[in-house]
Specification:
Pfam families: MFS_1. It comes from Venustampulla echinocandica. InterPro entries: MFS, MFS_dom, MFS_trans_sf, Tet-R_TetA/multi-R_MdtG-like. GO terms for molecular function: transmembrane transporter activity. By secondary structure, the chain is mostly helical. It folds into 2 domains: about 200 residues, Growth Hormone, Chain: A (Up-down Bundle); about 210 residues, Up-down Bundle (Growth Hormone, Chain: A). The chain contains 21 helices and 4 strands. The strands form 2 sheets. The protein has a two-stranded antiparallel sheet with strand order 1-2. Helix 5 packs across helix 6. It is globular.
Length: about 500
C-alpha cells in the first residue's frame, strides 16, 4: 500500500486501519489501531494524490472572481457622489455633510456585522451556491434603488438593505477554498484579492463617471427628465445591473462545493456553535491577526487620501487631485503585481507564516516612510522626495500580500470544512466592525495631529507604527497548523496543518 502526499507517493508498510495522512513515521508504529484520519478540513482531500495534483477549475474561479466584484461595487460605488447627493438632497450646511456621509457609508458595514454569522451558518447548512445567488440578487436590487433616494433617511434604509445581503464575500471565500488544494489555494486567493482590488477601483470610477449624467453629458442625457430628477440613479442602476448579471451567471454555471458529511447508523450531526469554533485550538490568535491586518489596511486606505491632499506644513504631501489619482493608480498596479506574480511562488517557498512575518516586518517601515517623505517636502528636497516616495509606495504595497496570507491561515486553522463558512463569517464580522469605526477614527486622529501639530503633525503615523509593531510581535504565535509550509517526513511531503488532530 502507498501513502500519498501532495507532491509524491511513498511506499510504506501499513494496514487497513492506518491513517493515510501522518505526521511522522512514529505514528505508523504507535497508532496502528486508531480510526482512519478524518477528512481534511476545507474539503481538501490532501491524502489523495489525484486531488493534490488537481488543477484549479479555471471557469469556476473566473465566475467566483466576477461575483467578487459586486460587494466593492456596492460599497465603494457611491463614494464619489455621496457628499454632493447628501448636500443637494438633505438641504444641509456644507460643514455638516461629512457627519451624515459617514453615517450612510458605515451603515452598510454595520448591518453586515450583525448578519454575517447568520449567513455563514446558512452557507454551512444549505449550501454555498443558494446563499451566494440569493445574496447577489438582493444586492442588485438594493444597490439599484439607492439612487432613487430623496431624503437622508431613505439613503440610510437603502444602504442598510445592501448590507443585509452580506453572504457574498464569505461564500465566495469558502467556494474558492473548496475549489482549490493546498498547492493551488495561494494562486486562487491571489485572483480573489485582485478581483476585490479591481472592484474597489472600478466601483468608484463608475460612480464618478456616471453620476449627474444630464449635467456631465448634456448632449447625450440632457433630454431625459428622469436623470435630471434622479441624477444619481444611473450609476446605481448600472452597478445593480452588473450584480444582476453576476446573479444569473452564478445561478446557471456555478457548481456547489459544500460536501455534506455522510451520516451512518442514523447518527445525527450536531453543528459546532460559533463560540465553539472561536474556542477551537489556534483559532483565537489567527482571528486576532486577521483583524489586526484588516485594521492596518483600513487605516491606511482611509488616511492616505487626506494625507496626500494635506499641505506639507501640516504633515501631508499637498498633492493635486491628478497626483492623488496617479499615486493611487501606481499603488493599485503594484499591488496587483505583488498579489498575482510574487505571492504564489513566495508562499510556496516560505509558507503562509513566512509571508505574514515578512509583511508584518514591513508594515512599520511602510508607515514610517510617510512622515519621512513629508520631511523632504518641508525641507524643500523635492528631487529626493520624487525619488524616494514612489519607491516606498510601490515597494510597500507588497504588504497587500498579508490580506491573502491571513485568509489562507484562516482556512488552515478551521476545525473542519463544515465550519468553514461560519469561521469566515466570524472573520468578516470583525472586518465589518473595523470598516464601521476604523476610517473615521484614524482620519480624525490625522486631523487632530495636523491641527495641533502633535509630533509635528505625525500623530496618526506614530499610532500606526505602534499598532504595526504589536503585530510584528504577535505573529510569532501563529499556530503551526496555519503556517502553510510543506514538510518532508520520511519520504512523504505533508502540507503544514493538513491533519486534524482529534
Amino acid at each position: 500500500m502507498t501513502v500519498a502526499g501532495p507532491n509524491k507517493v511513498a511506499a510504506l508498510t501499513v494496514d487497513e486501519n492506518t491513517p493515510l495522512l501522518v505526521t511522522s513515521e512514529a505514528d505508523l508504529k504507535t497508532r496502528p489501531n486508531e480510526e482512519p484520519a478524518p477528512t481534511p478540513r476545507n474539503g481538501h482531500t490532501n491524502g489523495d494524490d489525484e486531488d493534490a495534483d488537481r488543477p484549479l477549475p479555471a471557469f469556476q474561479i473566473l465566475v467566483l472572481c466576477f461575483a467578487r466584484l459586486i460587494e466593492p461595487f456596492a460599497f465603494f460605488g457611491i463614494f464619489p457622489f455621496i457628499n454632493k447627493m447628501i448636500w443637494e438632497t438633505g438641504g444641509l450646511d456644507e460643514a455638516d455633510v461629512g457627519f451624515y456621509s459617514g453615517q450612510i457609508e458605515s451603515s452598510f458595514s454595520l448591518t453586515q456585522m450583525f448578519l454575517m454569522i447568520s449567513w455563514g451558518r446558512a452557507a454551512d447548512r444549505i449550501g454555498r451556491k443558494p446563499v451566494l445567488v440569493f445574496s447577489l440578487a438582493g444586492i442588485s436590487i438594493a444597490t439599484a434603488i439607492f439612487g432613487l433616494s430623496k431624503s437622508i433617511p431613505q439613503m440610510v434604509i437603502f444602504r442598510c438593505c445592501s448590507g443585509i445581503f452580506a453572504g457574498t464575500v464569505l461564500t465566495i471565500r469558502a467556494m474558492i477554498t473548496e475549489n482549490s488544494t493546498p498547492r493551488t489555494q495561494a494562486r486562487a486567493f491571489s485572483f480573489f484579492a485582485f478581483s476585490g482590488n479591481l472592484g474597489m477601483f472600478l466601483g468608484p470610477l463608475l460612480g464618478g463617471v456616471l453620476s449627474s449624467p444630464a449635467e456631465q453629458y448634456p448632449d447625450v442625457f440632457g433630454r431625459f427628465a428622469f436623470l435630471k430628477e434622479f441624477p444619481y440613479a444611473l450609476p446605481t442602476f448600472v452597478n445593480g445591473m452588473i450584480a444582476a448579471v453576476a446573479t444569473i451567471i452564478c445561478g446557471l454555471f456555478l457548481q456547489e462545493t459544500l460536501k455534506k458529511k455522510d451520516k451512518s447508523d442514523g447518527e445525527r450531526e450536531v453543528p459546532m456553535s460559533a463560540w465553539e469554533i472561536v474556542k477551537s485550538p489556534g483559532v483565537p490568535i489567527v482571528l486576532y491577526l486577521y483583524g489586526h491586518t484588516m485594521l492596518l489596511g483600513s487605516a491606511l486606505t482611509a488616511v492616505s487620501p487626506v494625507f496626500w491632499f494635506t499641505h506639507p506644513e501640516l504633515g501631508g504631501y499637498g498633492f493635486s487631485p491628478m497626483q492623488i489619482s496617479l499615486f493611487m493608480g501606481s499603488i493599485g498596479i503594484s499591488q496587483s503585481i505583488w498579489l498575482l506574480l510574487v505571492f504564489p511562488p513566495l508562499q510556496h517557498a516560505i509558507g503562509t507564516g513566512g509571508v505574514l512575518r515578512l509583511c508584518f516586518y514591513v508594515w512599520p517601515i511602510f508607515f514610517l516612510s510617510s512622515p519621512l517623505c513629508n520631511m523632504f517636502l518641508r525641507k524643500g528636497w523635492y528631487t529626493a522626495f520624487w525619488i524616494v516616495a514612489p519607491v516606498f509606495q510601490i515597494g510597500g504595497s507588497g504588504v497587500a500580500m498579508a490580506f491573502t496570507g491571513v485568509q489562507l491561515a484562516l482556512n488552515d486553522i478551521t476545525p473542519n470544512y463544515q465550519t468553514l463558512g461560519t469561521l469566515n463569517a466570524i472573520a468578516l464580522t470583525l472586518t465589518s466592525g473595523i470598516r464601521t469605526i476604523g476610517p473615521a477614527a484614524f482620519t480624525s486622529l490625522f486631523a487632530v495631529g495636523a491641527r495641533t501639530q502633535i509630533f509635528d503633525g505625525y500623530l496618526v503615523w506614530v499610532v500606526l507604527v505602534a499598532i504595526a509593531s504589536l503585530g510584528t510581535f504577535l505573529i510569532r504565535y501563529l499556530p503551526e497548523k496555519a503556517e502553510g509550509r510543506q514538510k518532508k517526513i520520511e519520504g512523504v511531503i505533508v502540507v503544514g496543518g493538513v491533519i486534524d488532530e482529534e
